[in-house]
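INPUT
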Amino acid sequence: MKNFIYIFSALLITSCMPNKKNSNEINIYSQRHYNVDEIQYKNFEKLTGIKVNVTKANADELIQRMKNEGDNSPADLFITVDVGKLWQGGDMGLFQKFDNESVFENIDSQLLDNNSYWVPVTYRSRVIVYSNERVKKEELSTYEDLSNEKWKGRLLVRSSSNAYNQALMSSLVENLGSENTSRWSEGVVANFARDPKGSDRDQVKAIAAGQGDIAIVNSYYIGLLLSSLKEEEIKAGKAVSVFFPNQGENQRGAHINISGLALTKNAPNRDNAIQLIKYLTSIQAQETYVKNSFEYSVNPDVSPDEIVQSWGEFKKDPVDLNSLGTNRNEAIRIFDKTGWK
Ligand code: FE2
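OUTPUT
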C-alpha cells in the first residue's frame, strides 16, 4: 500500500510540475561511500525512469569543482556525510534554498536546516566503543571524561583531518567554549594509545587486537562490522560494546551528525532532484538505509535496524547542526594547537 501511495504521488508530482527541460536524469556529486546508495538510486530509477548519474569524490574536491564550474555545473545535488560541508557550500553561495515545504514533510524537525539550504537523509552518532574484556560500562560517562587520566594510553581515534572528528570538536566548542575545549583536547591527546591513524573501523579492530581499550567512532560502523562477510570484522565488532555519552539527566546528549543533500544553485534537473529527495526520505527508502548502512532514519516513522536497536535509545545533543560548520575553523585550530595529528 505504501508503495502504491508513493508511486501515485510520484506520478502526481511529475505530472503537475513544469519540467522545463523534460530531462530524464539527475547528476549527483556524492561524498558518500556506502553500498546502500547504489541500491537507492536503482530503486528510484525503476520507479520513475529517471537516470541517476553519480560522481564520487571527497567533499572538499566536490565543493571546489562546483565552485570552478560556476553556473555551468552539471550537478543538481551535492551529498555529504557531514553537515559542516553542507553549511560551507551554502555559505559559499553554491546552493539554492528549498522553497517547497513538502521536501521536509517526512523529516524530524530537530534535524532540519534553519536556513533551508540542505536536507538530511540519515543521521549518525559519534559514540564511544569499549572493550568487553577490559572496560566496564560504569567507567564511561561523557566525552569530557575522555580527557581523564584514567584513560592514559588506552584511547583510540582517527586523525584530526577527518570531518567526523572536526564535527565532534565543533560541537564541543559550541557547548563548552574554546578554552575548555582546548584543555579537553590536550587531555585526550595525552591519553592516546597510539598516534591517530586509520579509519573508524580500524580503531575497533585495534581494540580487538588489544592496542587500546576505548575508541571514538561513528555508530553505524559497528553494525557494518557485525554484519560483514569477513570473519576478522565480525570478531572486531563482537569485541566491543557501544556507549552513548552525555546521557545523564542534566547532560546534553550524544553528538550527532547528518548525511544530507543540497540543491545546487543552477540545478539543471531541479524537478527530478526534488523528486529524488522526496523518495530518499520516504518510508521505503529510509527502511533501505537503516537495514543496509545501520544509520538512523530521519523519518520518525522508521525504526533503526535490529542491531542498532539493541544498543538502546539515546538522547541527541540538540545543538544547531550548522554550528558544526561555523565552528570548524576553531576546531581545526584546537586540533593543531593541542597536537592532535
Ligand atoms: Fe562513514
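end of record. Residues 81, 218 surround fe (ii) ion (CB under 6 Å).
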